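Re-run with default settings, no changes from the original entry. Doing this only to confirm the output is reproducible before filing.
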Amino acid sequence: MKKWNVAIALMLASATLTLAGPNPKDSAKDETQRLENAGKVIEEILDVPDDIPQDLLDKARCVVVLPSVMKAAFVVGGSYGRGVMVCRRGPDFSGPW
C-alpha cells in the first residue's frame, strides 16, 4: 500500500511540474525584452560625450552587454545577471558584426 502512495505522489508531482513549467511564450518575451534593454544600454554608452574610442570598437572581436546585474556580498560575494553577446563574423572574427 505504501508503494502505491509513493507512486501516486510521484505522478502528481511530475504532472504538477510538467503543467507548471516555463511557458515558451514568456521565455521568448523575456529574451526580446533583454535584447531591447541591451540595445538601449549600448546606444546610451555610444551617445556619451566621453564615449568608447572607435579604435577600441574596431579591434573588438565581441561585445558583451549585461543590462541588469545584481550583486550581493556578506563574507562571500556573488553576482548574477543575464545579457547579450554580439561577435563579429568571418575568420578570426574579422568580418562585420
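Strands lie at 62-74, 76-87. The mean pLDDT is 74.
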